[in-house]
Fold this protein.
Amino acid sequence: MRVILWGQPMRRLSWLVLFSLAIAVIFTATRLPWFRGTRTGVDPRPVPAGDREIAWLHNPTSFESWDNFVWGVKRAEMAEDGTPSELEVDDAAAFPHRTTAIPEIVIRRKGYEGSLRIRWYKVTDEATQEAWVNALAARDPAPLAILGGWSSDRAKELADAMRDTVWPRSRPLLFLGTATADKVDPEDNNASGDQGPSLISVYDQSFRFCFTNRQMADAVTDFVLSDPTLRPGSIGWPGLLAVPTATAGPLVGLAALAAETWADWPSFPAFAIEWKDDPYSTDLSFKFREAFLKRTGSAAGLPRLDMEVNPVPFSTGRMNRPNPVETEVAEHILNNLPPPGTRTVLVVPSVTAPTRRVLRALVQGNPAVGRRLVAVTGDGLGVNTFFRDRDFAWPVRSLPIPIAMFTHADPFAWDTPGNAAIPPHGYELDPPAPGAVRSSTEDIQLFTRLARVVAAGVFPPSATAIVRTPDALATNLHSLKPAFFDAVGNRLSGSGEHIVVLRPIFPGEAPPSHPHLDAMLEVYGHRGLQGWQLLHSRALGHNQAGQPE
């Protein structure tokens, strides 16, 4: 009996000692530099003397984004007018054989000393953005800039990390590629609208190469209100006519609608959805409501839109089946649509899956709902959803609702056969054959513009060597002619906004020459005083065997 009583505490003591030793070993090991470096993989490469670096921070699975980035930068060897520029882009190390290697592209300019090296440092749960920022700050020299923030929430995290890091010398610039939110991360999780800090102000050395949510909402709103086939109010039913296009030949588009009588509708119901777990959604929703309120009403000669906000607490859900709150929102919208013969606006500020679920629920409740509303959004859907991937991502016949959305560059800017411009070998953007599909050119075009702008700052016209400091680069970027950024670093409006419109063909309205036409996909660009101009039009359809025409 004594042995059992004596053994139990001894066994407890032994386990306690072993557990304490294990904790001590783990704590000691994680503080050793060699152990920590192997675990995180945060090890920036040295920069050769005379060169400078831009650190490209992204997830290790972002191969398509890096591929588009390399294509875009390589095509910067062409000037804006398609003639050869003085830039030389070395892509020899852009796609290394080992995934653990650091990809790199090198930009040089004829007659200039020094090269610009853009390197992909891969962000993981352990090699975080903050860890990379700290490691880059400890290296001499630090980067000229860090390019990241591919979503608004991650951009805020990166800006916080760069702001809070002690930089021994000049602080690098922060280049935001596709982070669009004006305001981010309000302290109140239930906040809506302009209740958070300005993203561009979190780190005061920031430059944004995409457009903001406000700019997107303003552009889409302006387009919708200027197009009689989309704007809200009293309508006539659409007819069809043939329209010649450069890319698709004589195809079918929607005709102008019958005359609209705004006096009958001094105010008009409209709807917005907010997914509360997504700061991009809440911010963009507010910007759309603000834009429609500012541009409608008696002073504008349009009915005032009474925009109702429908909050959804979370954006998770299946591919096609709406979550319970999305179902309730769809039913509410269907029950409160304006009378037949009128059209209203639905703001869906989100990415593909939530938007598709809500619109599918609306169509299931009323198959003709697409005649009575137009969906508007920002850049969250992507043209590839409707063009390249439409068979599974957006089957138009089951989702016949017009959509107007924003793109940061021309998504159909393929190289035109016979054009005088000669792209770098291997980096041509061949157009798809009629009826075929190909990836959108938006990202590549955006990155080409980014590369040209950055190169103009890194290799200034009046110099013979690469810039040496981030402060000098910032001065050059703010001094560009024509200007590209405003005083705080946001991209200027009027520098490349594009609108993409999906126009579904409703049952019985396809012309005899194109009986299997599902929709028209149109791209518009803004041309100053000329307003919105149609640039491209593509027919989306299937033959009787279910294959693209």
Q: What stands out?
A: The CA atoms of residues 133 and 162 lie 6 Å apart. The longest helix spans residues 2-30. The chain has 14 helices and 18 strands.
